[in-house]
Amino acid sequence: MINIKTKKMTEMVISASLALILHYVAIIQLPQGGNISLVMAPILFIALKNGVVDGCVCGLIVGIFSLLFGGFFLSPLQVLCDYFLAFSAIGLGGLCSHQFINSVKNNGKVKIYLIISSLISGLGCLIFHTIAGVAFYDAYAPKGINIFWYALTYNSIYVIPDTIVAAICIYVLTGRAKNILLK
Residue ranges of the alpha helices (H) in the chain? Predict the structure, then answer.
């Protein structure tokens, strides 16, 4: 029988690999970085299935490889915010993993826990991308526009759709293949 730790690690690496591939299959590419893609879905899936630690580690793996495979490096702090912390923050959706899994098992309030988890993930990701935007991308803001509002708006353009698409993907999975979540 496969060791539980080995199984979780394998699921995490497969999900991170899928997330990385989906990150580069962009639905929409924004001109100053960022894109609308399905990158959040596999990370959030692992977070909901295995918990916050596994979700954050999965996100960190995706962030590291996103940087290595064509990321944008301005400074160590920008890399920390834009790649390591923003992608890791997607795993914070795992804070509701026990409630989500129990609701899947018992045909409970799956939508509510999925929405809460998705909001936590999206908000965490948005916060770190916005911090990086305020600190390092102020040159892109139009004259007279507050840099915080510019960074928040710009990053919201792709983080909000990513979050919505991830939630929809996971909702469809829970309806059609909930045994994947429960194993």
Answer: 4-24, 40-50, 52-68, 76-79, 86-90, 97-105, 110-136, 147-176, 178-182
Distance CA 161, CA 37 (A): 8
pTM of this structure: 0.92
d(C-alpha 87, C-alpha 91), whole Å: 8
Domain that holds residue 142: 4-182
Domain count, the chain: 1
pLDDT tens, residue order, the chain (183 aa): 568 788 889 889 999 999 999 988 878 777 777 788 899 999 999 999 999 999 999 999 999 999 999 888 888 899 999 999 999 999 999 999 999 999 888 888 889 999 999 999 999 999 999 999 998 888 888 888 899 999 999 999 999 999 999 999 999 988 877 777 667
- Tell me the sheet residues that pair with 33: none
**Phi, psi (rounded to 5 degrees) for 38:** -100, 20
User: CA 133, CA 29: separation in Å to the nearest integer?
Assistant: 17
* Cβ proximity of 133 and 155 under 8 Å: yes
CATH code for position 92:
1.10.1760.20
